[in-house]
Amino acid sequence: MLRRRIIPCLDVANGRVVKGTRFVDLVDEGDPPELAARYADEGADELVFLDITAAPEGRRTLLEIVERTARRAFIPLTVGGGVRTVRDMRDVLRAGADKVSLNTAAAADPSLVTRCAARFGRQAVVVAIDARRIEVTEGTDPGGRGGPDARPRWEVLVKGGRETTSLEAVEWAVRAAELGAGELLVTSIDRDGTQSGYDTELLRAITSRVTVPVIASGGAAAPSDFVAAVRDGGADAVLAASIFHRRIHAIADVKRALQAAGIPVRTTQGVAA
Amino acid sequence: MSGAAGSLRVAVVDYGAGNLVSIEQALTFVGAEVRVATGPGDLADAQAVVVPGVGAAAPAMRRLGRAGLVDPLLRWIALGKPYLGICLGLQLLFDGSDEDGAATFGVIPGRTALLEDAPTLPHIGWNQVERRHEHALFAGLADATDLYFVHSYAGRPEGPGADAITLAETEHGRRFVSAVDRGNVLGVQFHPERSGGAGVRLLGNFVRWATALAVGAGAERSPVGAGGTAGGD
């Protein structure tokens, strides 16, 4: 039976792992390959690197870090941030990534998803969606329904959460999967770094509409949040950053909680070179 | 552990299918001497061939054809030399792929087809690999060990020999064949190079099996490394 995955996420800026709250106030958390090897050793099922370096000259540094990481951690690596073209994607894969995550560039030009999938296969294309809940209060619901039956909506943000788009997150998720995304990485910007739990409503709204795997992101505080992301949100994989970086919870603790809730996980430990 | 005299020379076939760093590094880690093969000349002094890859069959066949590698690989297999196909490298062994209609190697009767009744597609993540018979490739691995998959299609062996070459199966919706073995040819649908400690062990097993095959079963000196851990001789 397919296991639900636990994925530590490493936000990388200028060659270092950093972590912020709601995408700002960055704090240094260490050397990416070193942290990656530690997580592989501790039983991480996969790793995600998100390059949040704004300057283009940081790309070379990123590719070196991807290669150093791929040589040390024998588990899958997804790399995102700053991939704008099929050629960018090729460079990242050749450096040792298994999958590439597209975000801003895909929202701006959805055909990029199709072109990348045609070249490398859809299983290598992850579309990352940063979603922010649109508050719907009675009387102001654009759908005119209002009240307790009003369905929540989420807008898609790009450029590291700094810019809004006209895309609605659930519709964009459905379309991205149709365009060729093999996986969706769904981050709740409202929850990111706040340790208030995953937005399971957002996750459920998406997982009930697509057949591609969905990775839940944003808001992890306790092992029970991971259980909720899978059980209530329907997530296939759950991603977290600070609670692992700061050793608030071990990956093994999270897996034990999932197992206790009857959710299949991989319990074998990994190795790192 | 790497590059020592006497270690198995493995050609990893490169046809632009993406990440080669991982398989190269994992094979080096278990004691093989790895060369990336981009043309037929690179197979000349190799003792084993590994064909990795993800994605669709048609572009892969085109790229292999342009590199002049299709016929050399078919000859390699026909000569009984050790071959390991990983993911797409396994799928290419079959007659053809339903994904894009490509004609592939035709070494194993059957076609590559979409996974049926899969709850999620692509099938991404760790899943149990259940053995159908014993093979040196899985030495030291518990049955139903979790290994990493990332694919939507899988090869389906057909004909009278189908059961005999089915080495392992995995369930995602329905059961599919996740490993095959036929003499000198091995194929796995999962990615051992991305499957943590279990995958590294499996690649070490491949290197030992291929070394034995390459030097011949009757060779005086045992090619099997001392101790139970993954490594060369």
Task: Describe this structure in a few short sentences.
With about 270 residues, chain A is of the alpha/beta class. Chain A has one domain (about 5-260): Aldolase class I (TIM Barrel, Alpha-Beta Barrel). Chain A is about 35% helix and about 25% strand.
How would you characterize this protein structure?
- The complex is a heterodimer of chains A (273) and B (233).
- Chain A is an alpha/beta fold.
- Chain A has helices spanning 32-41, 58-70, 86-95, 104-108, 111-120, 169-179, 200-207, 223-231, 242-245, 251-260, and strands spanning 5-13, 16-21, 24-30, 47-51, 77-80, 99-102, 125-134, 153-158, 163-168, 183-188, 214-217, 237-240.
- Chain A has a single domain, classed as Aldolase class I (TIM Barrel), CATH 3.20.20.70.
- Chain A is 33% helix and 26% strand.
- Chain A has an eight-stranded parallel β-barrel, surrounded by eight helices.
- In chain A, a hairpin with a 2-residue loop joins strand 1 (5-13) and strand 2 (16-21).
- The longest helix of chain A has 13 residues, at 58-70.
- In chain A, 53% of the residues are buried.
- By secondary structure, chain B is α/β, with parallel strands linked by helices.
- Chain B has a single domain (9-216), classed as Class I glutamine amidotransferase (GATase) domain (Rossmann fold, 3-Layer(aba) Sandwich).
- Helix content of chain B is 24%, strand content 30%.
- Chain B has a nine-stranded mixed beta sheet with strand order 2-1-3-4-12-11-10-7-8. In chain B, strands 5-6-9 form a three-stranded mixed beta sheet.
- The radius of gyration of chain B is 16 Å and the shape is globular.
- Chain B starts with 8 loop residues before the first strand and ends in an 18-residue tail after the last helix.
- The A-B interface holds A 1-5, 40, 45-46, 67, 70-71, 74-76, 93-99, 119-124, 182-183, 211-213, 236-237, 266, 268-271, 273 and B 17-22, 25-26, 29, 54-56, 59, 118-128, 145-146, 148, 150-152, 171-172, 191, 193-200.
